[in-house]
Design a protein that fits this description.
alpha/beta; Nucleotidyltransferase, domain 5; CBS-domain; five-stranded mixed β-sheet; four-stranded mixed β-sheet; about 45% helix; CBS_dom; EC 2.7.7.7; [protein-PII] uridylyltransferase activity; DNA-directed DNA polymerase activity; CBS_dom_sf
Length: about 700
């Protein structure tokens, strides 16, 4: 179980709901007579195991206390002391976050009991559902356990017993998670910061002698990662072209081939040739052959190799980073992966031996978790690993653009897996399978491979056939809504601009999308093209890739053929003027939006000129490099744009990863005061230079 950090989503934290019954309400004097606890995982109370223990307080239980919880001196006669209970309680709780109602009281009582028993005390990380409910619904008449449960329509059993109240607190916590998400409180750190803002309530607890119910989240130290696994892609490590044999070839003949070629595996297909869809192949490894020889030595050499091959063939994209391959091999306990291109065609084989060149025993932190997540809680937990990895990679001085590519890979994987889970949910609910072939597309920064740690959802769906508002469209509308909900819960919020497949403008048949492109290229005002440009950054992540390819080919062909279209897109490029009269930055709460004033004009310049000049590259860097290769634009301008792009991504990633751990929602604003003088001066020069980006686009539009 990984220890929770400020970046851990509330739905993904491992917690234990806790309650105590005591001899009184004065935290400075009360003794514990009962402890109850229950686990919380994946945003739900785990009914078993549970902790429920009576404790002899070593003094008489006052009658007024017994009238509340029903525990008398006779009930605790023969029970163990607090000293006896503490070790098993600690074992049950472990490293989990403690959750309770008015938990500051329980912590104070437990702390004093430890002091009396001369036991070491370390304040656990904790959350108070009373404070969380105050944040989620400040208009409740009061925030007692009963009132909160009634608001959330929860039934409480065993009220005023330690276990009963612990279960109630756990159920309330689970029910509060979606309520807090509506207020943009998603992570443990954000919840802690929000609770700490309730100063009046916290002060009342201090006066009563309670322990602070929450702690301020701390930004952890850099964690070591293996930079090699994040620098290399599968395509640069694989063996290719792969060795493929026909399914009918005798096993003896294939063994001879493997010995002669000094290879540890072969791929098998009916045609016996590479460059076909990866689904047509199986694999035979040295281990497969040894096992079969051991069990069937008399016949194995004459058997057709296809009868031994393992199917389906496990594969990975050539463009995937090596850490993904390491994680997939480890998860599935295999030593070979087929490698496919973006169209799903076989291009090579990757073996564990190939990965040994990467020192792959070092920590990689990111693995293949997203690809096999069973629900949104697992998706959220996997996504929450990214800030730490990004922060460590920046510390390793890896190019910030590469870090953004890794984040984009995870975002695309998250979207792909959420689409799979959404489709499964559609069938569970009786909507049936997809009515036709379709593809899920990631747009914007994710499609470009330039995602940062504050992404929102930019996605779309293209399907094979069907009219707007028809049966097919309605099915995919439902799928898009489920996809959006799953991504939002996982940690990628709904797009404020509505760029989501759940909305009609971002889903449609291939013909519908082609019709939209025709409409775009004949618009006459730049304001009519809002959100159109990011479609040109699309990357298909799930489904029929040929549909996506046909759409993007058509979009680029038509965009390139209509110069006015690119011209109107160029007229949308604005930078704003973020400077004061005296040349300083105009700041909001000490921060500057460097996406608006820096990244946007760079990205939009590259995209607009790429559309105009028929360049099919997706990333900003590749677009600028292709423009330079075509002798479009001055070398100095393009180098300045690329250097500025790298610097801005690095600044934003550093700020965002810090903020996420500190419980501050990630944004596109950076704290200028945290930059060095040199960084501030460089940023100022860049943004001033970008004021001329619209002029540069106009100059190069017809170059």
């Amino acid at each position: 179980m990984k220890r929770a950090t400020g970046a851990t989503p509330l739905i993904a934290i491992a917690a234990a709901a806790v309650d105590t019954e005591t001899t009184g309400l004065d935290a400075t004097k009360a003794r514990v007579v009962q402890i109850g606890a229950i686990g919380i995982a994946h945003g739900k109370v785990v009914q078993e195991p549970r902790f429920n223990l009576l404790i002899d307080p070593g003094e008489a239980i006052p009658p007024e206390a017994s009238r509340v919880h029903g525990i008398t001196d006779a009930d605790v006669d023969g029970a163990g002391s607090f000293l006896d209970a503490w070790a098993p309680f600690q074992e049950f709780v472990g490293d989990r976050i403690l959750v309770g109602h008015s938990i500051g009281f329980d912590l104070a009582v437990l702390k004093r009991e430890c002091q009396r028993a001369r036991l070491p005390w370390k304040k656990p990380r904790s959350l108070c559902v009373r404070l969380l409910a105050t944040i989620a619904n400040p208009d409740l008449a009061d925030h007692s356990l009963d009132m909160i449960a009634a608001w959330l329509r929860l039934e409480i059993a065993g009220r005023h017993t330690a276990l009963g109240d612990a279960i109630a607190a756990g159920d309330i916590f689970a029910a509060l998670i979606p309520q807090l998400r509506k207020r943009n409180i998603r992570t443990l750190g954000e919840a802690e910061v929000a609770c700490l803002a309730l100063s009046h309530t916290l002060e009342a607890g201090h006066r009563a002698g309670w322990v602070e119910p929450v702690s301020r989240p701390q930004v952890p130290a850099f964690q070591p990662v293996d930079p090699y696994a994040y620098r290399h892609r599968v395509g640069s490590l694989m063996s290719g072209p792969p060795v493929v044999v026909k399914s009918v070839e005798p096993t003896k003949q294939v063994i001879d081939l493997m010995v002669r070629r000094k290879i540890s595996s072969v791929l098998v297909s009916d045609r016996g040739a590479p460059d076909q869809p990866v689904v047509e192949y199986g694999i035979v490894t040295e281990r497969d052959l040894m096992r079969r020889i051991s069990s069937d030595a008399e016949r194995v050499f004459e058997l057709p190799i296809g009868s031994i091959a393992t199917r389906p063939l496990i594969s990975i994209r050539a463009a995937a980073f090596a850490y993904r391959a390491i994680g997939r091999m480890d998860r599935l306990k295999i030593r070979h992966l087929a490698v496919r291109d973006e169209a799903g065609m076989l291009v090579g084989v990757l073996s564990a031996r190939d990965l040994l060149r990467l020192r792959a025993t070092a920590a990689i932190n990111l693995d293949d978790t997203i690809e096999h997540a069973k629900d949104v809680a697992e998706l959220a937990a996997a996504w929450s690993m990214l800030p730490g990895v990004a922060r460590s990679l920046i510390g390793e001085e890896i190019d910030p653009r590469v870090v953004a590519e890794i984040i984009s890979e995870e975002l695309c994987s998250l979207t792909r897996r959420a689409a799979v889970l959404a489709e499964q949910q559609m069938q569970i609910e009786g909507h049936g399978p997809p009515p036709c072939a379709y593809a899920v597309l990631v747009l914007g920064s994710g499609g470009r491979g330039e995602s940062l740690m504050a992404p929102d959802q930019d996605n779309a769906i293209v399907f094979a056939h069907g009219e707007p508002a028809g049966f097919e469209d309605s099915w995919f509308k439902n799928l898009g809504a489920k996809l959006a909900d799953m991504l939002d819960i996982s940690g990628v919020p709904y797009c404020k601009g509505g760029v989501m497949a759940a909305n009609a403008a971002f889903r449609g048949s291939l013909d519908t999308w082609k019709g939209r492109v025709e409409d775009w290229v004949h618009r006459h005002r730049p304001e009519d093209l809002l959100n159109v440009d990011i479609v040109y950054d699309l990357r298909p992540v799930h489904g029929d890739m040929t549909l996506a390819a046909q759409f993007i080919d058509h979009a680029y062909d038509r965009g390139h053929a209509e110069p006015v279209f690119a011209k109107l897109l160029g007229e949308q490029i604005t930078t704003g003027y973020p400077f004061t009269l005296f040349g300083g930055f105009q700041l909001e709460n000490g921060r500057l939006d460097i996406k608006k004033h820096g990244l946007f004009p760079i990205v939009a310049t590259a995209r607009t000129l790429a559309i105009r000049h028929g360049i099919r590259e997706r990333s900003t860097r590749a677009r600028f490099e292709k423009l330079a290769a075509l002798d479009i634009g001055g070398e100095r301008d393009i180098k300045a744009m690329l250097a500025g792009h790298t610097m801005l991504i690095g600044l934003l990633l550093g700020q965002q990863t810090h903020d996420i751990y500190a419980g501050i929602p990630a944004s596109n604003r950076i704290e200028i005061g945290a930059l060095t003088r040199e960084q501030q001066a460089e940023l100022k020069r860049l943004i001033k230079r970008l004021q001329s980006a619209p002029d540069l686009v106009r100059d190069l539009m017809f170059a």
